[in-house]
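Q: You know discrete backbone vocabularies at least as well as I do. I have my own habits and do not want them to colour yours. No explanation is needed for now; the record alone will do.
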Amino acid sequence: MTPTALAIACLAIVTLCYIALCAVSPFGDCRKCRGFGYALKEDRRGRLRPGKTCRRCHGDRKRIRVGRHMFNVAARLHRDGTR
């Protein structure tokens, strides 16, 4: 197998796995708060305490994956164009 064909096959496998992940689990953990819903901060003794609510996810702790967002946009565009 040539290196080009191997690279194309690996890329196709990774893409199909990501599509399957977006179909099975459309939401992932928020990247800013890492799924906690708030920022962690230390008190004077060095213990971790919950801080302010995350501004990106608003405390929901989840975000929509990029692939699922692209699918939703394409589906909405198709639905609006065929009415």
About this structure: The CA atoms of residues 8 and 14 lie 10 Å apart.
